[in-house]
Specification:
Radius of gyration: 13 Å
Order of helices and strands: EHEHEHHE
CATH class: Alpha Beta
Strand content: 15-25%
Helix content: 25-40%
Number of strands: 4
Number of helices: 4
Number of domains: 1
Shape: globular
């Protein structure tokens, strides 16, 4: 399966996340696109950060597309850095191809 990965704080999730996801699904022929809601970006301050639960909920409300899956896998894996998350996903989902989607 070809799966897009859009990682971020989603603080909060917004229409821009949905837009780039829909474009990526269409242009790259993705079967799924996972929104990887980060438990806490180690490079960002926690001062203005909503709780993980609120950010996850905001992502679920915005992700109105059947191929978009809002995921807490980074929280479950205990990873903070993209490289660690990608390594863990590649080990866990050996038959799938991942495509990193990057916003601004």
């Amino acid at each position: 399966m070809k799966i897009g990965l859009l990682g971020g704080s989603f603080n909060p999730a917004h229409a821009g996340h949905l837009y780039i996801s829909e474009v990526a699904i269409r242009q790259l022929g993705l079967q799924q696109l996972w929104w990887l809601v980060s438990p806490q970006n180690p490079l960002k301050s926690t001062t203005d950060m909503m709780s993980f639960e609120k950010r996850f909920e905001s992502a679920q409300k915005i992700a109105r597309h059947p191929k978009i899956i809002v995921s807490d896998i980074e929280r479950r894996l205990g990873t903070q850095y993209t490289a660690d998350t990608l390594s863990a996903l590649r080990r866990r989902f050996r038959g799938d191809k991942f495509v990193w989607i990057m916003g601004a």
